[in-house]
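Re-run with default settings, no changes from the original entry. Doing this only to confirm the output is reproducible before filing.
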Amino acid sequence: MDDWKLDLLIHSGEVVTPDGVRRADVGVRNGRIAAVTDGPSRRAAREVIDAGGKLVLPGGIDPHTHMGIPIKDTHSADDFESGSIAAACGGTTTILDFTVQAPGQTLEESLEDRLEAARGKSHVDFGIHVNVTDQPDRRLREIPGLVARGFNSFKAFTTYKEQGMMIGGEQFRRLLGTVDAEGGLLMLHAEDDETVSRLTRRHVERGEQAPIFHARSRPPEAESLAVENATRIAGELEARLYVVHVSSRAGLEATLRARERGVRVYLETCPQYLVLDEEKYHGANGHRWITTPPLRRAEDAAALWEAVRDGSVDAVGTDHCPFTSAQKDRHRHSFCSVPNGLPGVENRLAMLYTYGVERGRISLEEMVRLLTGDVARIFGIDDRKGSIEVGKDADLLIWDPRPAGLVSADHMHGNADFTPYEGLEQKGRLCHTVLRGRVLVRDGEFVPGQPHGDLLTS
């Protein structure tokens, strides 16, 4: 290594690589990892960060965020600027967000709108999944062009019919077949709309509007039924499918059964389904925990942890869709009117480390796989992202495993004024976040500056 050419040296940390954990120095040059070695001098770089006694991890990739999107009568509280600051402060250096297709809008138009919302505003790198919600059959001809541009991940919904977002069974078959034939990947929000609509009407007619009826109106059976129907079609087409935010034992088991039949299905879950449960809906301000899918029972979380432990889960995203307490409180007495979503992009690493690694459920290497490595591979950005290897982007985290404390909204950086993880134990603390060699978080504090997030395409 030419010592004098290094821009940054992270010195003497416990570096988590695909091959294991070892004490090493990580050298950075021109935004890329130039070396992972035991050798460099502390004088080898323009800047040296001492990581002694700390973990050095690859920057996190959150495959599932929603910045500034319309939900019911409001918008999610974080835009790309505030949400990317929260991401950086939580150890995420890449977010993958979604288009919002308005009625009558082409996929291309919805993509350009989303790119305009993100460009020059995101402090972390970002990619865009393309939602297909309006007149899906008319949009099929756009898919080859989008894939050719590097936008090869798409999303469909089996619910939200009243909002004009649901895709029918035969439409889903045609969309999945088209996306897969072009080498793309279809993501699916899997809840059976007939079940959800019927149960929602029943509870509303009975005057059952408390937060717990959000969970009762969207039961695990709705998730498993939608997964079963979609994976049956995926199997018939021999197509890949990515199921987002699996929340229940029933949904998990339906996904695993599909794999046993040879279906190529990826499974994503979220921290809220691992560390929270539906008891939150019975507590004070329980409506603030309304999200979709809803929080489940403790036994569902236990089943999901077992799937994380045995490697069945491919990715942990956050489904970050934050609202302020005022936005939530406006409809506190009507579960079906509360904007559904939770903040979480700043808590993902801490929750996986505290309740996964520290409790012996997963190793550091497994945590990194879930938060970075497999996500990069699945979405086709592993040539640049996902691991600490020479030649890849210098997206790096320094995590101190020693501090212990409690999660508090007072320490969060997004626009939501509450966190669903309030009061939970947290072991460890983020010290530094580095994006392509640029320090975004130093000693736990965000470094103000112009956003430098790049658009990622596959």
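The chain has 14 helices and 19 strands. The chain has a mean pLDDT of 96.
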